[in-house]
Amino acid sequence: MAGFLLAISFVGLLNLLPLRKALVIDYKLTYPSGTATAVLINGFHTPQGEKNAKFFFDFSLTYVGAGMICSHLVNLSTLFGAVLSWGIMWPLISKQKGIWYPANVPESSMTSLFGYKSFMCVALIMGDGLYHFIKLTGITAKSLHAQYNRKHVKRAANEDTVSFDDLQRNEVFTREYIPNWLAYAGYASLSIIAVIVIPIMFQQAKWYYVVVAYVLAPVLGFSNAYGTGLTDMSMSYNYGKIALFIFAAWGGKDDGVIAGLVGCAIVKQLVQVSADLMHDYKTGHLTLTSPRSLLVGQAIGTVMGCIIAPSTFLLFYKAFDIGNPDGYWKAPYALIYRNMAILGVEGFSALPKRCLELSASCFAFSVLVNLVRDFSPQKYRKYVPLPMAMAVPFLVGANFAIDMCVGSLVVFSWHKMKKKKAKLLVPAVASGFICGDGIWMFPSSLLSLAKVNPPICMKFTPGS
Predict the structure, then answer these.
(1) What is the spatial distance between Cα 256 and Cα 156, in angstroms, rounded to a whole number?
(2) With 0-12 CB in 10 A as exposed, 13-18 as middle and 19+ as buried, what is 459?
(3) What is the pLDDT of residues 90-142, one digit of tens each?
(4) Is residue 91 within 8 Å of residue 323, measured between CB atoms?
(5) Cα dist. 351→100, 249, 358 in Å?
């Protein structure tokens, strides 16, 4: 298991390395978790840093904090997506239960409403991500062509208003140049190793399956990194699910299940690691940290994770009855992913009725919205929703969008009352919400392992 993780994890570090400047500086993506970490790190280096850090660690409102860091457009886009999906589409599709999809299947089955949620969500994400990937590729090619011909490209008008702090951060971030050829050569070399090693580990995963996964990884990785930078929500598992269906169908009845699960793991890991690295680069950009040091640190952490994660799993596997449907450690996702692989072997015809048509419509809608934004006058662009942000509530749920909008409301109200103080303290408060909740996860996990239940629980149900 550790060998498999080592074979697929390091490529993710090189996946988006040439695009780090575009994602962090040019697109100015917030990466809320990375920003929150940077604010806390910077806070430790101020006279009041330790005092502020202790105070703000007491909060545990992750999504409210993320909403305070993200722009109003991102938060309102998630709310629009939540209303569109949970308020309109899912209730309408649910009325077709027994007609479009079987009435006696569990909610977690891809042949139920969950199939519509998953595929329509990924279609929106893929449409938005692919559009921006092609757009960025075109801009990069145009820039390289202009540089080759020694043409001077005029700077955008808003670059003159960049603050001194941002200019300093940009200069430090780009000063330590990491050659693109190193990323390309490393990606190619590690890909060749994976193409050789993985089929030896899993005979059902043919070498050309691995080649296809590594060819698709840059596009999928960019889509996920862009979406994570907007909303702080990684969709790597959804990309993995789509890969699972593709490789399971490709593998056929004999090899499809194992091939699908292996392909899912490869794509998910490549996409996830590259998004995590962009989070770290955002933190480094805000804290004036060396990009090379961040890359080395991420590589060391990846090695540790590839060893610690399997060891932890084996510890749990031997200590507890993992996977028993009637036991405490049910491991439901293991069953879900296996069922999805079986569904992939049976073919996409087993998906719910109209699922592919609706997903294609979502993909087209995503591309169309981006075209409208890019070709609309500047003053109207702020009213065009972001498809990537809209897609997240499709699968995660509407409560996430509401929490994000609460964060926007807090920032809006605070700026109306005390603008100068809000500008200074909003990042710190938001960081406290996010990091405080994250810190609590560790003792919460220990309490769960000890089977300690909370003294009181609250649940809201519809009235009769």
Answers:
(1) 51
(2) exposed
(3) 999 999 888 888 888 877 677 788 888 878 887 887 788 778 767 766 765 66
(4) no
(5) 10, 13, 12
